[in-house]
Amino acid sequence: MEENLAIVALVGDKMRDHVGVSGQMFAALGENGVNIKAIAQGSSERNITVVIEERHLRKSLNVLHESFFLSEKKRINLFLVGIGNVGGTLIQQIAKQKEYLRENEHVDLRIVGLANSKKMYFDEEGIDLAKWKDLLMGSDLTMENTAFIKSIEEMNLRNSVFVDNTASADIAALYNGVLRKNISVVTPNKIACASSYDNYQELKNTAREYKSKFLYETNVGAGLPVITTLNDLIKSGDKVKKIEAVLSGSLNFIFNNFKSGVKFVDIVKQAGEQGYTEPDPKIDLSGVDVMRKILILIRECGVEAELSDIKSESFIPEDCMNTKNNEAFYAKLEEHEAHFQALVKKAEDKGARLKVVATYDNGQASVGLKEITKEHPLYILEGSDNIVLFNTNRYDDQPLVIKGAGAGAAVTAMGIFADIMRIANS
Ligand SMILES: NC(=O)C1=CN([C@@H]2O[C@H](COP(=O)(O)OP(=O)(O)OC[C@H]3O[C@@H](n4cnc5c(N)ncnc54)[C@H](OP(=O)(O)O)[C@@H]3O)[C@@H](O)[C@H]2O)C=CC1
Ligand SMILES: N[C@@H](CC=O)C(=O)O
Ligand code: NA
């Protein structure tokens, strides 16, 4: 007497996927001499039951594994909000790398939703990346947060990732709802992780509960592997005792290029042209961007801190901060040229370089402009580089050091891309 067994094969989201995939599986079973006794549509749209003889079980599993799971490309559906300096570069990188990923990683990356502050555009089959700008600009759909989220829901695609490339608090406020729909979130926007500790923790908890991912490696050091490294240390039981870091690419660029006789405001504008500053450069110059970054690092270490717990001494005159737009801010910086010249002259007289340094030591985090002399490890830090030194129980005598470009569209987009691929490979 033959004993029959049931194998339940999970296939794609929709019935139209079933036809192709199941046909492929049945053909592969037949070619390998497996006699299919019966086929039944499962209780949900996502499974099909195939009944075979018991003696063919192991062979069938191998055949199914090879014919379907190994050859199947994992489709990742991206919803991108923010297509400026960083978001636009990310689209270019995806367009260039898409074919390589299909061939070598079996990952089919598709951008299925796009938005800036004015318009949004969707294509469930994947937006044609050769003309994404025209498609978005020509779209009839005005960007509206609720409508964007509703479209994601209606498309109901598996393996969806919401990528926030804005610096907007309104977009960051959407993450919790998105994560609850089992959609992962990837972002270089620091606002969520530097908001209240409760919100930061809730986002992490939601991601855990709903089995979505919340990844933000580019919040600190752009594409440099700072947060992943820190997470590796913590998860493996190490304890961070001290952090010393230069965490602003724009400020490092500015103070590397600002010398006596050079106008401070001109260098600040250059940092903007290079794509190093935030959309609002006051966030960089005030030290807030660095405060957010050191806050995120210590939170990742398990410290329940708020932004107000970070000590910070601003080097920017108060009235520069009270300006309403970038032009007015630049005009005020120009008015205070003598103040900036005095700062740099004082450092130059000591043979020192100015650096905005973030530290965490003895439970206290602080940010401030420091005169760094030649013997200090932070002295040789060129261009828009960042450096992070972690002193831990294991890296005790010599710190673990991460160094490299810490701002700029290409390296930031790369870091976002890497987070997306972490999700694709998970
Ligand atoms: N530049 C860098 O080196 C790094 C940047 N980051 C972070 O990356 C993010 C993006 O920076 P960057 O690309 O330089 O900024 P940009 O100003 O160049 O681009 C911002 C984009 O976001 C869009 N946007 C703004 N508000 C909204 C909104 N409410 N809804 C939809 N779209 C919106 C803008 O649209 P529109 O054009 O219509 O205004 C624009 O497309 C920031 O959070 C920044 O902190 C992180 C690490 C490094
Ligand atoms: N404006 C930031 C960009 C990266 O976070 C910086 O200057 O470092
Ligand atoms: Na990083």
- β-sheet strand percentage: 15-25%
In round numbers, the mean pLDDT is 92
Query: In this structure, how is the largest beta sheet organized?
Result: 6 strands, mixed
For the secondary structure, the number of strands is 15
Class computed from helices, strands and strand pairing: alpha/beta
Which molecules other than protein and nucleic acid are bound? NADPH dihydro-nicotinamide-adenine-dinucleotide phosphate, the ligand N[C@@H](CC=O)C(=O)O, sodium ion
Strands ordered across the widest β-sheet: 6-5-4-7-8-9
Fraction of residues in helices? 40-55%
Q: Give the low-confidence spans.
A: 12-19
Radius of gyration: 26 Å
Distinct helical segment count: 17
Global geometry: elongated
Quick description:
With 426 residues, the protein is α/β, with parallel strands linked by helices.
If you had to describe this structure to a student in words, what would you say it looks like?
This protein has 426 residues and is α/β, with parallel strands linked by helices. Helix content is 42%, strand content 21%. It has helices at residues 15-31, 57-69, 85-105, 132-137, 145-155, 169-172, 175-180, 197-209, 227-235, 249-257, 264-273, 282-285, 288-300, 318-321, 326-335, 337-349, 409-424, and strands at residues 4-10, 36-41, 47-53, 74-81, 107-115, 120-122, 160-164, 184-186, 214-215, 240-246, 311-312, 353-361, 364-372, 385-392, 400-405. The strands form 3 sheets. The protein has a 6-stranded mixed sheet with strand order 6-5-4-7-8-9, sandwiched between helices. It has a 6-stranded mixed sheet with strand order 11-13-12-10-14-15. Residues 12-19 have low confidence and may be disordered. Sodium ion (NA) binds next to loops.
